[in-house]
Amino acid sequence: MKAAIIGTTGYGGAELIRILHSHPLFTIKSVHTTRDEVPVWNEYPHLFNIMENKLEQINPEKIAKECDIVFFATPTGVSGKLVQEFVDKEIQMVDLSGDLRLRNTDDYQKWYKKEPVSAELVNSFVYGLSEWNKENIATSKRISNPGCYPTATLLGLAPVVKENMILPNSIIVDAKSGISGAGRSPSRANMFAEMSENFKIYKVNQHQHIPEIEQQLTDWNSEMQAITFSTHLLPTSRGIMATIYATLNKSVTNEQMHELYTEMYKNSPFVRVRPLHTYPSIKEVTGSNYCDIGINVDERTGRLTIVSVIDNLMKGAAGQAIQNANVMNGYEETTGLQFLPLYP
Ligand SMILES: NC(=O)C1=CN([C@@H]2O[C@H](COP(=O)(O)OP(=O)(O)OC[C@H]3O[C@@H](n4cnc5c(N)ncnc54)[C@H](OP(=O)(O)O)[C@@H]3O)[C@@H](O)[C@H]2O)C=CC1
Ligand SMILES: CC(=O)N[C@@H](CCC(=O)OP(=O)(O)O)C(=O)O
């Protein structure tokens, strides 16, 4: 299948190139920009002598004629508009932004502070949390890829929320992300001198991923209530760790909880539930599409601690986008994604 990438010069676009370049079933037909039509390696010297493509302006007619699938690695507020230029065309779409995830368009307006696209357009996209929405992804041609923090958080919480094992108002998510999560556009807050040897909290109780996480939690279990969700910036390039706390609604042992997680993810090749009393670090998934999860039941407090780690650019963005494209096309979900974590 022939693929086009829009938003190529950003970090998500670069990661899509890294995966698609060696994918056996997709080839990169065209890569797009709103800036100069220069060879990709001008923008990304690490692709010198590897990728000959020139960046091209975005021409929806031409892209739809030449390609079978288009990936939008474009900012929120941009994707929603671009997608509308493709809806009347025969082409599969995978969008990495937040524009097509929230079914309640008032929520979008409130949390993103931008004009939403129509609910009809949002509803024509399937939410691409690959592990838990496979049937819908397989029969769709339009995927709205989850946010990076929601991916780590939701994969961590799914077993206990679906099995109704926690108090509905007790979820606290303490999440941390590497700086590439903020994209490639420079900002003062993300400069080396600001971020090296530093650790910051940001968007306190205001993060735009809160309604996305709550939407999925209540889809799974209508009892679920508002969550507390805090985001922090780590002085690393990649990686997300979500440390999640929730109060159990009954007495459960560590062994029972571990069995539940292992059972629920036994058919999910990218989710690795760690053995009891071992916990993942972000470096153990860097460069790969894995989400690694460690759990612990604190018998003293009756609370569950869940640690969920991903690479924000892989399982949190481009990796999951390709996983969804695989599922959408009936390919094995791991195709072209079997990267080992890059360690150390
Ligand atoms: N970084 C991450 O870890 C994650 C990102 N996401 C989401 O994925 C999307 C891409 O993220 P990321 O790669 O980090 O973002 P970047 O800011 O790094 O890149 C976005 C790219 O979009 C292109 N772009 C900007 N404005 C327009 C426009 N008006 N029309 C067309 N293209 C435009 C730019 O390319 P050019 O200037 O060449 O046109 C730019 O390089 C975002 O929506 C982000 O929220 C989701 C999960 C994780
Ligand atoms: C580290 C960092 O700044 N991360 C970004 C993730 C943004 C993102 O992925 O945006 P959408 O999913 O909403 O499109 C943030 O916290 O806003």
| Cofactors and ligands | NADPH dihydro-nicotinamide-adenine-dinucleotide phosphate, N-acetyl-L-glutamyl 5-phosphate
The CATH H-level homologous superfamily of the largest domain: Dihydrodipicolinate Reductase, domain 2
Strand composition percent: 15-25%
Q: How many beta-strand segments?
A: 14
Mean pLDDT, to the nearest integer, reads 97
CATH topology of the largest domain: Dihydrodipicolinate Reductase, domain 2
- Tally of helical segments: 12
Percent of residues in helices comes to 25-40%
Residue stretches low in confidence (pLDDT < 50, at least 5 long) are none
Largest sheet: 7 strands, parallel
Question: Which CATH architecture of the largest domain would you pick?
Answer: 2-Layer Sandwich
Shape: globular
In short:
The chain is an alpha/beta fold and 344 residues long. Helix content is 30%, strand content 20%.
Question: What can you tell me about this protein's structure?
Answer:
The protein is an alpha/beta fold and 344 residues long. It folds into two domains: 123 residues, NAD(P)-binding Rossmann-like Domain (Rossmann fold, 3-Layer(aba) Sandwich), CATH 3.40.50.720; 164 residues, Dihydrodipicolinate Reductase, domain 2, CATH 3.30.360.10. The protein has twelve helices and 14 strands. A seven-stranded parallel sheet has the order 3-2-1-4-5-7-6, with helices on both faces. A seven-stranded mixed sheet has the order 9-10-8-11-14-13-12. The mean pLDDT is 97. The structure holds NADPH dihydro-nicotinamide-adenine-dinucleotide phosphate and N-acetyl-L-glutamyl 5-phosphate. N-acetyl-L-glutamyl 5-phosphate binds next to strand 10. The site of N-acetyl-L-glutamyl 5-phosphate has 11 residues, from strand 10.
